[in-house]
Write a structure and sequence with these properties.
There is one protein chain. The protein is α+β, with helices and mostly antiparallel strands. The protein is about 35% helix and about 20% strand.
């Protein structure tokens, strides 16, 4: 792994020489710009407005334009010589509970490795102290041309430095959430909790995959082979679940449970039983009565077999078959009740 930064973790009077390594990598399909008309590659050139020509990368520097229009040029040496303590030192400022840092502030993650074997023991000391306390260390670090707050935490037995944005860089959320008081009924909350529990059964984050990249790869392969590009079916209209929220929750819970087939059904919790009561009350009573009407012809046939002179065994068998058919259809009607209610 390529080293991103070299420096020292300062933990009180303990110094730990370390290297940073990028902990993540994106798997985006590499795309570049082309001319849509003829497919010609479009390249970005570094063009000097003063001289009217392209300039090599070695002559590129950073500049700042002042409010009065003047440009100040900053060279790499200027940036390298900044009087900044955090350039080569990760100074541990405090130890806090992880919940005190809003995940909204987290940015890029780096694995922290020792620079030499002599740093192994203080490294392990800091790692084990963080693990035992359940806390994270708040630090600051200067990477490239930016100083950032950061936290040190433990991941799979390895120290990880996670850079953060500054607190004043987090925008306010005022006016985004629904205004006014919104009342959520206890039954709706119980049903939502039951749905959350069902969706969370056997969830494995490592099984998630990037559907967008797979679909993009299929399109690229189709273009290369000169075949028709695969298209996704047009999505239907989004369901309006604002009016009947309980019906939408009921249907969502049933669909989620259907996705967990093959597992032993757990006993219904008190929350599920309470949430399901409206569905049972809403189910049409007429749909639970067809079974007796189905069995009636069988009874009549059995009662009149002697008068009609028909074979007793045949009549009884026919009546039994009809009764069995009625019994099989009854569950399907009952299972349809919740769907109708939703």
């Amino acid at each position: 792994m390529q080293t991103t930064w070299k420096g020292t973790i300062s933990f009180g009077l303990v110094s730990i020489p370390v290297h940073l390594y990028s902990a993540t990598q994106e798997h985006d399909l590499p795309l570049h710009q082309v001319h849509a008309k003829d497919g010609g590659r479009v390249r970005m050139k570094r063009y000097c407005e003063q001289e009217g020509k392209e300039v090599p990368y070695a002559e590129i520097a950073k500049g700042y334009e002042s409010p009065d229009g003047r440009t100040v040029t900053l060279t790499d040496e200027d940036l390298a010589d900044l009087p900044l303590p955090s350039k080569k030192v990760i100074d541990v400022l405090a130890f806090v509970d992880a919940a005190e840092i809003d995940p909204l502030m987290f940015s890029k993650a780096y694995y922290v490795g020792v620079a030499d074997q002599a740093a192994a023991k203080p490294y392990a000391l800091l790692r084990d102290a963080l693990t035992a306390s359940g806390q994270i260390a708040v630090t600051k670090i200067a990477l490239r041309t930016r100083e950032s707050p950061a936290v040190l935490r433990v991941h799979d037995g390895t120290l990880v430095l996670q850079t953060c944005i500054w607190p004043d860089e987090v925008r306010s959320a005022d006016g985004i959430a629904p205004e006014g008081e919104v009342t959520v009924r206890p039954q709706e909350l119980k049903m939502a909790r039951s749905l959350m529990d069902t969706l969370s059964e056997d969830f494995d984050l490592s099984q998630l995959h990037d559907d967008y990249q797979r679909a993009l790869q299929q399109v690229v392969e189709a273009r290369i082979q000169g075949v028709e590009v695969p298209h996704e079916e047009e999505p239907g209209a989004a369901p309006d679940n604002v009016i009947d929220l309980m019906a939408a929750l009921r249907s969502s819970l049933k669909e989620a449970k259907g996705g967990h087939r093959g597992r032993r059904a757990a006993p219904a919790s008190e929350e599920e039983a309470t949430a399901a009561e409206p569905a049972a009350r809403d189910a049409p009573a007429a749909e639970e009565k067809p079974a007796p009407r189905k069995r009636a012809p069988a009874k009549k046939a059995a009662a009149g077999k002697a008068a009609a002179g028909k074979d007793t065994a045949g009549t009884t068998a026919g009546g039994t078959a009809k009764s069995a058919g009625a019994a099989k259809k009854t569950p399907s009607r009952k299972s349809a009740a919740p769907r109708k209610a939703s």
